[in-house]
Design goal:
Order of helices and strands: HEEEHHHEEHEEEEEEEEHE
Strand order of the largest sheet: 4-5-3-9
Distance between the termini: 85 Å
Radius of gyration: 28 Å
Number of strands: 14
Helix content: 25-40%
Number of domains: 3
Largest sheet: 4 strands, antiparallel
Low-confidence stretches: 1-39, 242-275
Structural class: alpha+beta
Number of helices: 6
Length: about 280
């Protein structure tokens, strides 16, 4: 009887061990292709970092900060800039593969249809090369910045430092800005610059200012849902108002009250498009 128990226990332990080994193999097989792609990524930074040869990251200055009448002078050098974001850039061939995958994910005839990626998978398959990431991190550290973390998608570096660090590294000053309505902000007053060698892997710098986006949604009135007709019934008029964006005329549904006679359905209420 004791012998049978020992044999039974041994078989159970062997099966359990084999099961875990099998699971481990599956995990390794699932992870290996992504890791291999990340390792095979071709570095975009191929030249030594030369602080004397710079390029400008255009479009990284808020328009409000470019008005001289709003400028109230530089902030103190020791002012801390927390959680600035450095956006990284894919190589053109990697971007082309990424765009194709997005198209395939939305193509019902593609084997990639609806096979969404997690951030870590995105970084592994389409992230910048590890040597490039390390070069950028080293460059930030050489200017006194603290790298807080790299986003899981591999395309944003969160870093912190002082206004003096920003001036030295990015060749732009952080100033106090006061708008005509009295709002107070801080902002870079010119587009940042970085060594040209880093440019193939750097898209731009965010959070050099505190001009944050604001919601333009306006609460105009109640809506009720009619389950019999499967429609949303606004208790106000539905009118189209147009605006010009990038040379095209766009219309957004706006609401203003008529007591519920418009009969607009859900798509009409929330629709926006070119007309």
């Amino acid at each position: 009887m004791r012998m049978r128990k020992r044999i039974s226990a041994g078989l159970k332990a062997s099966v359990k061990e084999n099961f875990y080994n099998w699971i481990l193999c599956l995990v390794c097989l699932a992870v290996w292709p992504a890791a291999a792609l990340a390792q095979d990524a071709k570095p975009a930074i191929t030249a030594p970092v030369n602080e004397g040869v710079l390029v400008t990251l255009e479009g990284n200055t808020p328009a409000a900060a470019m008005h001289p009448e709003c400028d109230r002078g530089p902030v103190a050098d020791e002012m801390q800039m927390e959680h600035m974001l450095l956006a990284l850039k894919r190589a053109p061939e990697t971007e082309a593969r990424f765009e194709k995958l997005i198209a395939d994910m939305h193509d019902p005839n593609s084997p990639e249809y609806h096979r969404w990626l997690r951030p870590q998978q995105l970084a592994a398959r389409f992230g910048i090369a590890s040597p490039d990431l390390e070069t950028i991190r080293t460059w930030l550290g050489s200017h006194g910045f603290q790298v807080n973390h790299v986003y899981q998608n591999g395309f944003v570096i969160d870093f912190s430092g002082s206004a003096a660090n920003v001036r030295e590294a990015f060749h732009t000053e952080i100033h106090n800005v006061v708008l005509a309505n009295g709002e107070r902000h801080i902002s870079n007053i010119s587009d940042p610059q970085i060594p040209a060698a880093l440019a193939p892997a750097v898209q731009g710098v965010a959070s050099l200012h505190n001009f944050f986006p604001r919601s333009r949604a306006i609460q105009l009135g109640p809506v009720s849902y009619n389950s019999k007709t499967n429609t949303w019934q606004p208790h106000f008029n539905v009118n189209f108002q147009g605006t010009t964006f990038r040379g095209r005329r766009w219309y957004v549904v706006c609401i203003a009250g008529d007591g519920g006679n418009s009969g607009a359905d859900r798509s009409e209420i929330w629709a926006a498009g070119e007309r």
